[in-house]
Amino acid sequence: MRFIALERMAEGESPAAVSASFGLHRTWAYKVRAKARGRGKGARAVRDCVAALHGKLTLHFLPGYAPEPNPDELAWSHAKRTGNARRPLRAGEHLEDRIESQLADMAARPDLIRPFCRHPSVAYIADCRVTSGCCT
Length: 136
Description:
Layout: H1 2-10, H2 15-22, H3 26-36, H4 43-52, H5 71-82, H6 95-107, H7 110-117
Helix pairs in contact: 1-3, 2-3
């Protein structure tokens, strides 16, 4: 929604009209535009930090809400579909212990975890060079 609003404001539509079309107060559009321009709370500190690194850091701006799953959510979805939700707890068994055990078993299986990082919804990860973790 923020990207759509930014595109419409870049095309010349007023922030008030854009906000009204989403059913929001006009200040929302002004805040979105300020954040996109690198202004607002904390923006100066972030800009200064990035500039001090002389090109060693690249920022990728993400929306506040992303409906596409990330690798963590894909792994958690797999855990829910295949384990804990399919077996009721036995007498004296604790949910936390079972979840920790299942996640440890999943972590020991890189062949299971790697596809989560290669899912089309998280293709941006393939551009990164990771020295450790599931996407190597």
